Amino acid sequence: LAKTTQPISMDSYEGQEVNITCSHNNIATNDYITWYQQFPSQGPRFIIQGYKTKVTNEVASLFIPADRKSSTLSLPRVSLSDTAVYYCLVGDARVRGSGYSTLTFGKGTMLLVSP
Amino acid sequence: NAGVTQTPKFRVLKTGQSMTLLCAQDMNHEYMYWYRQDPGMGLRLIHYSVGEGTTAKGEVPDGYNVSRLKKQNFLLGLESAAPSQTSVYFCASSYDRERGYSNQPQHFGDGTRLSIL
User: Fold this and answer.
1) Cβ atoms of B75 and B20 closer than 8 Å
2) Residues of A in contact with B103 (CB under 8 A)
3) Quick check: A107 and B102 CB within 8 A?
4) 3-state secondary structure chain B
5) Which residue, of A12, B18, B75, B81, has the fewest CB within 10 Å?
6) Closest CA to B74 of B85, B66, B82, B84
7) Chain A window 36-55: which residues touch B at a Cβ cutoff of 8 Å?
8) Is residue A104 very low, low, confident or very high in pLDDT (cuts 50, 70, 90)?
9) A106 touches chain B (CB under 8 A)
10) Alpha-carbon distances of B112 from A64, B4, B86, rounded to whole Å
11) pLDDT block averages, 10 residues each, chain B of length 117
12) Closest CB to B45 among A87, A102, A107
């Protein structure tokens, strides 16, 4: 399983763009990159997923360079409600002939947005 | 569509007592998971299931048992609770077969807060 490294914490202000980078040097060919968001007293919530290049949805963008050894979650114009822990996961969570590969949640990045 | 529902939301046990945590999903998902989350740590996988009637061990399975008798339900059991099992437990599910062979994200419940004295 590919190991991920992301900053323990980040600080930002309302209205700013926040970029959280995740390193995954030993990512495998079939691995996807998935980001989750977790608020206190809630379960993680899926934000975005990608395999290569750029993916954008209504919440965030995910930038993946050609070598796929890192990825960057971009949150445009954050608000106070974006204060949460963000997890980067790398893996191929599908049942295949070789079995099922589970994903690993690290400690995540605690993002604190201030007024 | 309730998603993933966990019961109970809170529970206090004495050491040595047993209990079962229930997870129910209404999304027709094939896979289900149980995690625990301790302060300052990420989620750690306890057990998981890739289909009705099947279960497998995750990262921290000791002291827990699971059962998946029905596709929509995944039960986590503590036979003899220990203080080290004080934690927040999260259930998740994923993979709607009708969406095809794809890397589908997990959907989480809001957790069960378990304290063992």
Assistant:
1) yes
2) 32, 34, 49, 92-94
3) no
4) CCCEEEECCEEEECCCCCEEEEEEECCCEEEEEEEEECCCCCEEEEEEEEECCEEEECCCCCCCEEECCCCCEEEEEECCCCHHHCEEEEEEEEEEHHHCCCCCCCEECCCEEEEEC
5) B18
6) B66
7) 36, 41-46, 49
8) confident
9) yes
10) 35, 12, 11
11) 90 96 95 91 89 91 96 96 97 82 82 96
12) A102
Matching residue, tokens 């996961």: A89
Contact A92 B103 (CB under 8 A): yes
Give CA separation, A8 vs A20, A43, A87, B74, B83, in Å: 10, 19, 10, 32, 28
The structure tokens listed for B56 are 């497998």
- How far is the first Cα of chain B from the last one, in angstroms, to the nearest whole number? 36
